[in-house]
């Protein structure tokens, strides 16, 4: 294992981060009224669309973390480097965004009406719980041995993909909070 192992977060910490950040996003959205939830100033995504985007982003992970290891290896190849730390992965993501990176077509949200809010929050919570359950079937070392493709960041280890998911929620929550503070 690489010497940067100390800077990687354990499976327990990763699960805690996923739970904390997804729950925080859902809680923030749940307190919104109709105008806040559907507001999309200057062509930005509404909070509802941010929720739809996050659902679209986590669904493939729920599927992938349920696949047998040999399928992941066959479909996506072998790891040829150590996992990046959480901080290094976040920095890479921020660099891609600052260079103009955006969500690819399958992750672009539809318009979301206020009356869909509770259903979507429930769906996102169920997807979180499914992902956490599937993660429980993986060993700590497996997270650094298998890869998945990310549309913006390229091939990521399973650990890095979870780091991304933790940060991705935080990123969208901060965007929404900043936008509402300006109103």
* Shape call: globular
Number of helices: 7
CATH architecture: Up-down Bundle
| Strand tally | 2
Description:
The chain has 183 residues and is mainly alpha-helical. It has a single domain, classed as Up-down Bundle (Four Helix Bundle (Hemerythrin (Met), subunit A)), CATH 1.20.120.450. Helices cover 59% and strands 4% of the residues. It has a two-stranded antiparallel sheet. Strand 1 and strand 2 form a beta hairpin. Helix 1 packs antiparallel against helix 6, helix 3 runs parallel beside helix 6 and helix 3 runs antiparallel to helix 7. It is globular and about 45 Å long. The N and C termini lie far apart (49 Å).
List the defining traits of the structure above.
Four Helix Bundle (Hemerythrin (Met), subunit A); globular; 2 strands; two-stranded antiparallel ribbon; 183 residues; mainly alpha
Short description:
The chain has 183 residues and is mainly alpha-helical. The protein has one domain (8-34, 44-182): Up-down Bundle (Four Helix Bundle (Hemerythrin (Met), subunit A)), CATH 1.20.120.450. It is built from seven helices and two strands.
């Amino acid at each position: 294992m690489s010497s940067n192992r100390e800077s990687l977060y354990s499976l327990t910490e990763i699960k805690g981060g996923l739970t904390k950040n997804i729950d925080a996003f859902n809680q923030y959205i749940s307190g919104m009224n109709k105008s806040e939830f559907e507001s999309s100033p200057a062509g930005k995504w509404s909070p509802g669309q941010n929720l739809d985007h996050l659902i679209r982003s986590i669904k493939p992970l729920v599927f992938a973390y349920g696949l047998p290891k040999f399928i992941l290896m066959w479909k996506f190849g072998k790891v040829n480097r150590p996992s990046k730390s959480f901080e290094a992965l976040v920095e890479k993501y921020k660099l891609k965004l600052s260079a103009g990176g955006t969500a690819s077509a399958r992750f672009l949200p539809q318009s979301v009406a206020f009356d869909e809010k509770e259903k979507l929050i429930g769906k996102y919570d169920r997807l979180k719980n499914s992902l956490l359950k599937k993660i429980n079937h993986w060993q700590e070392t497996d997270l650094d041995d298998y890869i998945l493709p990310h549309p913006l960041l390229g091939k990521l280890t399973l650990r890095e993909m979870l780091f991304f998911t933790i940060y991705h929620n935080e990123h969208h929550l901060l965007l929404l909070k900043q936008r509402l503070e300006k109103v």
